[in-house]
Amino acid sequence: MTVALWCILIAFLLPYLCTYVAKISGGFRLKDNHDPRDFLDSLNGLGRRAYAAQLNGFEVTPAFAAAVIVAHLAGNAELVTIDVMAVLFITSRLLYIICYLVDWAILRSLVWLVGMGLIVGLFVVSA
């Protein structure tokens, strides 16, 4: 498997990192597993931001996965280009999560824009 394809797996797992942060900051306990989403309404601050970052991760990951797969299938781009763009996307997602958790809203939006640009770029280099 290529680096870019491994990055798809990483992108699928990153939202669960945010889930963990949201749960531990929201006081989630294993005994609450009968209704594991009940505590979401009571989240604020860090927990609420972690949950929002989680949702954003679930929203953007399918587009990233599609872009990487299309880039591989089209065969028009150098593999190293696809791999570098995929690693940069994962890096942007990690920075996005950090920015969300520490509440750097403007920087978070800029990092999000970079990530979206990388997704579009994967399609462009495939053309």
Automatic annotation (TrEMBL):
SUPFAM superfamilies: MAPEG domain-like
Membrane-spanning ranges: 84-102, 109-126
Presence of the UniProt keyword Glycoprotein in the record: no
Record keywords, A-Z: Membrane, Transmembrane, Transmembrane helix
InterPro entries recorded: MAPEG-like_dom_sf, Membr-assoc_MAPEG
Keyword DNA repair carried by entry: no
Pfam families linked to this entry: MAPEG
Location(s), subcellular: Membrane
GO cellular component: membrane
Name of the protein this chain belongs to: MAPEG family protein
Species of origin: Pseudomonas silesiensis
